[in-house]
Amino acid sequence: MFLDESLRRIRMLLQGRHFQEELEEEMRLHREMRQQEYVARGETPEAAQRSANRRFGNPTNLREKSYRNWGWSWLESLMQDLRFGIRSMLRSPALTIVALLSLALGIGANTAIFSFIDTLMLRSLPVKDPSQLMFFGREGDSGITDDIASTTLYSYPFFREMQKRNNVFSDVAALMSMVNGVHGIIEGQDAMQPMRVQLVSGSYFPTLGVQAIQGRILTEADDNTEGDHPVVVVSYAWWKRALASDPAVLNRKLTLGTTTFDIVGVVPPEFFGTSVGEAPDMWAPMSMIRFVPPLWDGYKKNFWEGMYLIGRLKPGVSQEQATSNVNVLYQQIIRSFPDVDLSARNAGYLKRAHVDLTSMSKGLSSLRRRFSDPLRVLMGITSLVLLIACANIANLLLARSTARARELAVRQALGAGRLRIVRQLLTESLVLALTGGLLGIGLARIADRLLLRMISGGPDLVPLDVSINTHLLLFTFAVTVTTAILFGIIPAFRSTRLELTEALKDGRGSSSKGSSRSRLGKVLIVSQIALSLVLMVGAVLFIRTLVDLNNVDTGFNREGVLRLDIDSNVTGLKSEDPRMIAMFQEIEQRVSALPGVKAASFASFLFSQGSWNTSIRVVGQNLNDQVNVKHNVVGNAYIATMQIPLLAGRTFGPQDTATSHKVGIISERMAKDLFPAGVNPLGLHYYAGYTGTDPKPNEEIEVIGVVKDVKFGSLQERPQYIDYLPNPQHPWGYGTLGVRYTGDFDAVSRGVQLAIHSVNPRLPISHLGTLDEQVSRTLTYHRIVAQLSAFFGLLAVFLSCIGIYGLMSYMVGKRTNEIGIRIAIGASRASVRWLVLREIALLTAIGIAIGVPVTMASSRIVAAMLSGLHGADAASILASVVALLAVALLAGYLPARRAARVDPVVALRYE
Amino acid sequence: MKRDEIPPGTLSLLILKALSLHGPLHGYEMVNFIQQSSEDVLQVEEGSLYPALQRMLLKGWVTAEWGVTAGNRRARYYKLTAAGRKQLALELSQFQRVFGAIHRITQIA
């Protein structure tokens, strides 16, 4: 019924012109027949027509009434307003272009930043009822630990016990806290390719409620016995990319390490796992952990803790109930393991341990942790820019409404209601804003790609979905309408409030009403300047922070080092296998023998690649388990490759073998703080790691060298306790090679790759680059914030300049005859110029006076959010103030010059 | 002769009734029919027929089709639909209830 009616309504709308014609014809026929009737009765044709018309009524009125009955009149008047709005936009193209450009930039920037906020911080996981999912602990650590009281990382046996004994979750799932980066071979292909494998418990997919779109998901049946379920489920993206969406995907196989896996299913395209920005290529059951490189052996070890746990709350169970149940079980399960070491120290830790359950609805994300604060800061910056753009457009519209004063006055005099005109003006603003919004979305698409590249910080794009979606369009639409109201409403009301007779009189007039309008304009300019100052000081601070961090002394020489990764897992050898150790040494020797290469060495960590840390105990001292020492397992030439200054002792050499007594090189800070004061640490012995009550003498490490402190994890960190251990004595299946070279990078890189493949042609080589790039990549987010804030700061200043220029031109135009008189009675050109510039200087000074305290306050907020940031200091503020003053005066100079060139005769004759 | 305005809201009832009695009619015929059947007591502002007809078209009570008059002119003929017939019955019973009530009150001596 209602539907039929709506259909008829729409059909009528589509046939608008036809409708009018038919109605017209029908009504004409009616009147003519009536007229004929009267004529037949003997009236004259004229008299007959008159009475027929009288009996019929006002046809225009009736037509409108008929039309209104279809309920489209609102649309009609809206279309009218829109047409009028577009016409008036086209009439002043300069203003329109400036307004559209600033709107497009403002809205585009906001949309782009918001799309990242949306995908990282707002969107829920694409799984069933994500709000029921709970994460065990607080995300932050990943890796493997044997910490008895870890409340983030858990062992597989712990997971099984928790799954069995809890009564608050409908199911519990475990996943490795790291994705295994593997090189594998698709059956039937020759080349090895990188594959990112996520190990998960069989309950992972059922807990999330994710179904396969092809084949099946992994289930408990794949995870009940260790080692005999060689199956994987692959991601939609990988299926498309690596298998070209082969419909026979379920018959395909792939080899990881030495094991061949069957592909048993494909998951839906929207499912990227449980970590935002980390999309694994495939999921393998935890039962295969020992067969997926790096071949971890953690399926049955009670204290091999490397897994995250996720639980789905049973309906009606609160987070508090679940937390208390989990914590009771946590203590019981750990204490029930037969190999638990409940020494006094461990018991103390365990007693204090508390598992916090945190919401998992938005998934895990290290990206979120790193970029939440910068994104918030950027969102603030872009909204300020948009605000400035709004003020600017309001000012331009205000100036134009003066030009239109007569038009509006005429319309009001003819009887248009004030609200009707306000509606018309607001519609015009809306047309402007919507056009700007559309352009902004286009701009945001480009900006998104740029930002994604910046966030990724390297050649591989982070798998983040920042495409346009309804969420985003709604946001942009809301922003657009808000801006239209912000910049449209004041000019609209202002320009409809006027004394008709004043406005209808011609001439520029010296009436007082103009001054209130320019007062409003001045207020807008002052606030623009204040906001611009905030943004400029912000940009200066961010840039200075970036420069400072880039100039931090790393302790090693970051220039002139080539770095690459090899995947030694493809050999299928354990890291302690003598053949593996020999292979690394062989590669180091062949590479160092290349022309242009000075030294080459593997290392477990070059820079910011994670860490392996334990407490240490210096022989003859008590264990201090509060300190953590970072161990870096390296090749013999590492210190030379990195050019870390050797302060005392020697570096490693061929004499340090798997069987010789253990040696280590320690950092300056470690020597100073952890070794007895006043004693030369060379020759002293220490143990790495907790050795229990009964340390084995052959694990004692002798200090053979002391080196300068280096930055290890980040450029911001304080000096760390670091020791370097030779690979033969602490075998590490490492993959990162550093090569100190001179000359052409490409030539050296080709040589190095050939040398590696001459040792083993199957070794995959990846992440080829320089150490310098690797270091500066850790500044990604500082760089993004610095670059973007500089861009937006400049944009803000530029917009403010346009505002100043527009306002001053307008005021000079208003005061032309006053200026003419001044010149006529002898004012010099210079003093006229100063008259205008003084005004600008005054406005800018007021803006700055307001802006400085605002800047101080906001820089304090931002400094708290972004680590390592400078507070607003006098130098930064002063520089910004001077720059702002300079560009403001520059923007005002053109109108001032025009004022000074006023010809008094012309100006006065004009009156 | 003095003519009376039709009570508000009854125009559509009159149109529906006219159409149900006579089959398809064009506007001019409808007005004439209403005036003649009321023995010239009821007066319709003739043009107001057309907005009313548009509303009835929207509601789906009538459909319109172009045809040719006896005098060989193109005219739009309106025809009652099933929904229109239902509406007529509804409006008739409503009218009779109200009119009957008014009639009873005014008959009280």
Describe the structure.
The complex is a heterodimer of chains A (911) and B (109). Helix content of chain A is 52%, strand content 13%. Chain A contains 27 helices and 23 strands. In chain A, a hairpin with a 2-residue loop joins strand 7 and strand 8 (259-266). With 911 residues, chain A is α+β, with helices and mostly antiparallel strands. Chain A folds into 5 domains: 2-71, no CATH class; 76-123 and 369-506, no CATH class; 130-361, no CATH class; 515-552 and 780-911, no CATH class; 568-763, no CATH class. In chain A, strands 14, 15, 16, 17, 18, 19, 20 and 21 form an 8-stranded mixed beta sheet that branches. In chain A, helix 14 packs antiparallel against helix 23 and helix 17 packs antiparallel against helix 26 (874-900). The longest helix of chain A is centred in the middle third of the chain and has 39 residues, at 418-456. Chain B is α+β, with helices and mostly antiparallel strands. The mean pLDDT of chain B is 86. Chain B is built from 4 helices and 4 strands. Chain B has one domain: Winged helix-like DNA-binding domain superfamily/Winged helix DNA-binding domain (Arc Repressor Mutant, subunit A, Orthogonal Bundle), CATH 1.10.10.10. Chain B has helices at 11-22, 27-37, 49-59, 82-107; strands spanning 4-5, 42-43, 62-68, 74-80. Chain B is 55% helix and 17% strand. In chain B, strand 3 (62-68) and strand 4 (74-80) form a beta hairpin. In chain B, the strands form 2 sheets. A two-stranded parallel sheet of chain B has the order 1-2. A two-stranded antiparallel sheet of chain B has the order 3-4. The interface between A and B is medium-sized, with 27 and 21 residues.
